[in-house]
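Quick start: what a row looks like.
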Amino acid sequence: MERLTVAYAAAADPERAAAMRAYMKDVAPFLGLTTPVRRALSRTVLAGTPRPDEADCTAIALRCWVLPEREYHYFAVDYLRRHVRQLSSGFLPLTRHLVSTVPWWDTVDALASHVVGGLVTADPGLRDTMDAWIEDDHLWIARTALLHQLRHKEATDTNRLFAYCVRRSDHPDFFIRKAIGWALREYAKTDPEAVREFVAREGARLSPLSVREALKNL
C-alpha cells in the first residue's frame, strides 16, 4: 500500500483529474491517471509480491476503498479480478460493501461481472443471495445481480436471467434499465433465439431502452 500510494501520487495530473471527476459526475476525486499509466504503475507496485490469499485481498480492498481518489478503487477492483480464484463464497459480503460504498458504474460493473460472477460460478449456492440482491432497494446491488452472469455464456442460468429482467422491468432508473438490456444483449451472443423469444414475449413489460439494448446486435 505504501508503494502504491507513492507511485500513484507521483504520477498525478491535476488538470486531467478535474476532467475525470467531472466525467464521473463528481462521484470521487481523481489523481488524473489514464488507464494505461495506472496499470503500468500497478505492475511496478506489484512486482515481486507473492500470490495473495483471501485475507490479503480483503485487506487490500478495504484499505484502497477508504482512500478518496478513485484510482485506488480501480486498483482494488483489478486486484480482486486477478485473484478471484483465491476467494471463497465468504467474500461475497465484502463485495456487497464495495458495491454499495462510493458506488458508480465504473467500479460496480467490474465487481459484478468479474468478482461476484466468479464467486457464483465457484459456488452455485450463492445464487440464492443473488435472488435476494435482485429484490434489493439499493440501485447498485440490484444492478450487480442483473450483471453478475455477464461473462457466463453457455453456463448462464437462463431462467434466472430472464426472471431478474422481468422482476426489475418497471424500475424507473436508467442504470437498471440499461443493465437489463446489457445483460440480454450479452447473452444474445450465446443464444440469440432465446433472447428474441424473451423480448417478443415480455417486451411490453420492458422499457424501450431495455428492448433497444437487448436487440442491438440482433
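That is the whole record. The first helix runs from residue 2 to 10. The chain has a mean pLDDT of 98.
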